Amino acid sequence: MDRGANGRTGRGRRRGVTALALAGIVGITGCARGCTSSRPPIHPNPSMFNQPKVLPQTASPFFYNGASMREPVPGTIPIGGLKEDEALFTGKGADGQFVAKIPVAVDDALVERGHDRFRIYCQPCHDARGDGKGILFQRGNVPTASLHQENIRNYPDGQIFDVITNGKGLMASYRWPIPPADRWAIIAYVRELERKRLAGAPGASTSAAAPADQPANSK
Ligand code: HEC
């Protein structure tokens, strides 16, 4: 600082007056911190407060379609989004027909995972044994398909995948809550239920919780 300036008395007094005036302004306009106000804040240096940037999902007169966000280039694939295995993700083969068999290896772990997901996503309506006597049927008398009926037993696995993915008739789609791998796991479990029912296995038709502890046959 220019210490020499203090030598002149007039300058010193003026400084004191300025400091008092500033303190007064702060006093009048409110406290510096810890107070709330309904008035817009004063920005002595507003350069960082108002940024001319685009916010997501807003309108913009800049682009011909009036939207600020651009659409991805056609054919863009997000990381992890490449779905080359058509059967796995659609239940249909290259010929457009439902695949007959689950396109992943069926083992005990898959069936167990399927049981777990079935309990969450299917059992409320189709009941633990797959007879379709779940809550909708009990409370609303809604006709819910039995998974043991002959035509469903004869469905290609891919068709059940399609029912879970897209829904069917009164049944809603479970595309979003159930990822494709889990849909196949559920199908593996449903097939297991059907097989046990056909074989007359004691656990399958009498006890709701039994099937998981029986060894799963490979397909
Ligand atoms: C909210 C109740 C509800 C849930 C949950 C539910 N379903 Fe269904 N499902 C139904 C009803 C109702 C029908 C009969 C639809 C119709 O015929 O209109 C049905 C029909 C079906 C059919 C036969 C479709 C056809 O082609 O006739 C299959 C297979 C099936 N469900 C499998 C499943 C599986 C697997 C799950 C678990 C991922 C599941 N459902 C979850 C209510 C449900």
List the helices and strands and how they pair.
Blueprint (H helix, E strand, L loop, with lengths): L8 H21 L56 H5 L17 H14 L1 H4 L8 H6 L9 H4 L3 H10 L13 H20 L2 H5 L13
Helix pairs in contact: 3-8, 7-8
Bound molecules: heme C.
Heme C (HEC) binds next to helix 4, helix 7 and helix 8.
H-E string: HHHHHHHHH
Uncertain spans: 1-7, 204-219
Name the quaternary structure.
single chain
Outline type: elongated
Number of helices: 9
Strand tally is 0
Q: Report the end-to-end length measured between terminal Cα atoms.
A: 88 Å
* Named CATH topology of the domain at 86-213: Cytochrome Bc1 Complex, Chain D, domain 2
Q: Give the full name of the CATH homologous superfamily of the domain at 86-213.
A: Cytochrome c-like domain
Describe this structure in words.
With 219 residues, this protein is mainly α. The protein has a domain at 86-213: Cytochrome Bc1 Complex, Chain D, domain 2 (Orthogonal Bundle). Helix content is 41%, strand content 0%. The chain contains 9 helices and no strands. It has helices spanning 9-29, 86-90, 108-121, 123-126, 135-140, 150-153, 157-166, 180-199, 202-206. It is elongated and about 110 Å long. The structure holds heme C. Heme C is lined by residues 121-122, 124-126, 136, 142, 144-145, 147, 152, 160, 163-164, 168-171, 174, 178, 186, 190.
Task: Compose a concise summary of this entry.
With 219 residues, the chain is an all-alpha fold.
List the main descriptive attributes of the protein structure presented here.
219 residues; mainly alpha; Cytochrome Bc1 Complex, Chain D, domain 2; 0% strand; elongated; disordered C terminus; binds heme C
